Amino acid sequence: MRSWKKYWLIHEDITLRSYQKSKKKKLNNPEIDILNEKLSQLIIEEAKEDEKESKAPEIINSKKIKEIDMIELEAYIGVIIMMGIDRKPNYHMHWNTHGLWESSLISKALGLKRFINIGSIFHLSDPFYSSNSQDKLEKLNPLMSQIEAKSQQYYLLEQSKSIDESMIAFKGRNSMKQYLPMKPTKWGFNNFVLAGSSNGYIYRFIIYLGKKWIFWILSWKRLLEAFARTRKSKFSSLYW
User: Fold this and answer.
1) In whole numbers, what is the pLDDT of the chain averaged over residues?
2) Is the pLDDT of residue 77 over 60?
3) Which sequence spans correspond to the domains of the chain?
4) pTM score, whole prediction
5) DSSP conformation letters of 9-75
């Protein structure tokens, strides 16, 4: 019979220590700070162009959609984040006034009609432009590049780094969706990350696009290049 002993687990705040050594400025609003002025203006300009050309049937009771401003853009993204936390069978229920379903934070931030209108013209790149690139994330690259840049701006990785996989849970329809039965999250997008080995802070990420060998090679090549750029001394080490 196994004999169990009780010990106090002393946990060093590695994250805080590494963060203080990095001499980066304090991040007060990590979610909204990703939306810097340049990216926000890109989204607003793309929405204006799409509004001129699109005749989407989802537009409700509006011959012309009112232009998006910075406050509404932040409210819209905040509503999307809250919907992921407070999940309901369909998004219309977030504006239900019934006591069991009411989401006061969402309904007060943005009206349902305005939410649908913004969603019909919300783009990160020109939706009518199609290049010959095989990159399935081409139209999301402006946002992903911005998230990576902010991750690298506010934190400096320690000497020991790790290349690993991180699953983004998803069960909808998408050609990039993977099924990995041995993972805790079995369905979703397979994400290759360069992270701190002690605290798991993701410094760079690359989403796996498919079985084609060129994507596999490029993914690992980009991560190794990112490691080389973060290597500040000859004592840096990499694990995978």
Assistant:
1) 71
2) yes
3) 32-121, 138-239
4) 0.61
5) -----HHHHHHHHTTPPP-S-TTGGGS-HHHHHHHHHHHHHHHHH---TT--S-SSPPPP-HHHHHH
